[in-house]
Design goal:
By secondary structure, the protein is of the alpha/beta class. It is 18% helix and 27% strand. It folds into two domains: 255 residues, QueA-like (3-Layer(aba) Sandwich), CATH 3.40.1780.10; 60 residues, Thrombin, subunit H, CATH 2.40.10. Strand 8 and strand 9 form a beta hairpin. 36% of the residues are buried.
Length: 336
């Protein structure tokens, strides 16, 4: 186990960052990593169902990404609207921040915006001269490493085909590979976690224990909880589903204040700040489908907790040698 940030780094050739989605979602490659034997298979995502056994359940995140990015009318300032904090007041990420100090004003959709405060993490509290629909004609908040503005293709491809609960600022990218047909062929259910900036906030402290996740809202329906509790094995689609299920399991233990022979989850809505890194004990998730994650990220730490840091880094090295596509629009890894 390592708690040093530098131990979660790896060199990635820039050309392996997938800047665009493949023409067909299901054509992604899928590295299959067997945790116990440390062996690797190179497969296609559309073969996922071959790894399912009777009574397995695939759990997906049905959050829907908000078109939360807007530009000033002059085009010089980029706003990512994070959350409403009062009447006609929002918390935002702003680029470039130097143009938006306290008191600065400009217009978006002909509505005046004024900076009321600059928060410790760099976000701005913005007041609007009138309430407007900020998501009307907004654009998808693509990750900065894609190095481009979103376009019409991203409006559909940066959403999962099952996205139905609006609230995310980033896509649950492991779900982007699924099609309606593939879903019809596998046993599945949905939970919701609205992916916020906290999931992707860089870790700055060399001791990762000093990092704090920001709260993100999640929910589990009664129907989903019943299916999850009946399943023999849980296939979590993405790190967001892992955090939902493991947070729910932790909450159940705290409420009952006893060790449970069989882990159960209950229908609930809440917030999670769960930070998963090596030494974490997984209670709900048996298998994980996930994309390839950024160096030094909390997501890489989560998959390292699930499969072992050295095992993951060896798998990533092989993925680079085999020219897998990385990050949001990239290929995927199935960890068994």
């Amino acid at each position: 186990m390592s708690l040093k940030l530098g131990d979660y780094d790896y060199p990635l050739p820039a050309e392996l960052i997938a800047k665009r989605p493949l023409p067909r979602r299901e054509d992604s490659r899928m590295m299959v990593l067997h945790r116990n034997s440390h062996t690797i298979e190179h497969r296609q995502f559309r073969e996922l169902k071959e790894f399912l056994q009777p009574d397995d359940l695939v759990v997906l995140n049905d959050t829907r990404v908000l078109a939360a990015r807007k530009f000033s009318d002059a085009g010089a300032v980029d706003f990512l609207f994070l959350e409403i904090v009062g009447s006609a007041r929002w918390k935002c990420l702003v680029k470039p921040g130097r143009k938006m100090r306290v008191g600065a004003k400009l217009t978006v959709d002909d509505v005046e915006l004024r900076v009321e405060a600059v928060l410790p993490e760099g976000e701005r509290v913005i007041s609007l001269s009138e309430d407007i629909d900020l998501y009307a004609q907004g654009s998808m908040p693509l990750p900065p490493y894609l190095g481009r503005a979103s376009d019409r293709e991203d409006d559909s491809r940066y959403q999962t085909v099952f996205a139905r609960t609006p609230g995310a600022l980033a896509a649950p990218t492991a779900g982007l590979h699924f099609t309606d047909q593939i879903l019809r062929e596998i046993p599945h259910t949905f939970v919701t976690l609205h992916v916020g900036t906290g999931t992707f906030r860089p870790v700055h402290s060399e001791n990762i224990l000093e990092h704090r996740m920001q709260p993100e809202t999640f929910s589990i329906s009664k129907e989903a909880a019943e299916k999850i509790n009946r399943a023999k094995r849980i296939f979590a689609v993405g790190t967001t589903v892992v955090r939902v299920l493991e947070s729910a399991a932790d909450r159940a233990r705290l409420l009952k204040a006893v060790e449970l022979e069989t882990e159960k989850v209950e229908a609930q809505t809440g917030e999670t700040e769960l930070f998963i890194y090596p030494s974490f004990t997984f209670r709900m998730v048996d298998c994980l489908l996930t994309n390839f994650h950024l160096p030094k990220s909390t997501l890489l730490m989560l998959v390292s907790a699930f499969a072992g840091r050295e095992c993951i880094l060896r798998a990533y090295s092989e993925a680079i040698r085999e020219r897998y596509r990385f990050f949001s629009y990239g290929d995927c890894m199935l960890i068994l």
